[in-house]
Amino acid sequence: MNFQSLIKKTFLYKHIYHPYRVRREKAISQNKHALFVRHGAAVLVHFVKCMQEAELDYWLEFGTLLGAYRDGDFVPNEQDLDVGAYLQDAPRIHHVLIQKGFRLVREFHVIGDSNMEQTYEYKGVTLDVMYFCQEADMMWCYGAFYDPWKCKLGKPFYYQVTAHYFKPFSLDKITFLNTQMSVPVNTEEHLIEIFGPGYKVYDPNFKGDLNKVFYSWEEKTGIGFINY
What we know:
This protein is an alpha+beta fold. The protein has helices spanning 3-7, 11-54, 62-71, 90-99, 187-195; strands spanning 59-60, 80-86, 103-110, 116-122, 125-134, 139-143, 156-160, 162-166, 171-176, 179-184, 212-214, 221-226. The strands form two sheets. Strands 1, 2, 3, 4, 5, 6, 7, 8, 11 and 12 form a ten-stranded mixed beta sheet that branches. Strands 9-10 form a two-stranded antiparallel ribbon.
């Protein structure tokens, strides 16, 4: 049994720290959702207009794409926005978003790899930009889930890497929030790749996408910075 496992068996952890952490995370989640309900639509429209004015490619991705395509709305209990973009456009996207009032709050890199994920914030709503690389027979992006309790502001943190692989796609347009927005041209096929053939029925217990690959520490390790 390792040291961490021993800690979790202590009275202080089980009866004080862990209950406090659960309450705190619930409060944070509720606050993020409240901010999203208030400003999420406006933030997404603002982002889209920024990209359009700069003539930069982007598309709705993951949960944001699911809600827009399936429901014509955000999915229930949504807390942030997900968009995709091409890795080669990352410097220009960063420049445009900073100029337009967004703030970079998190950036995640894969050690030994050029790809990354960025999180921006505007009006208290976070927007994840998943950068995609394209090869002949696939497109892919990295992602990372981090533990904010183990991260310090402005300090790097290490975490295992997840990767998402898709069939190549071009872009199309849909109308969402009374605004023309970019989506993968094969939207239904793309959503099935992520959520499975049952994506049309809301599942509150769904955890992550179906084609996510978890790399071990030995295979790939990511390093990130947070600036909340």
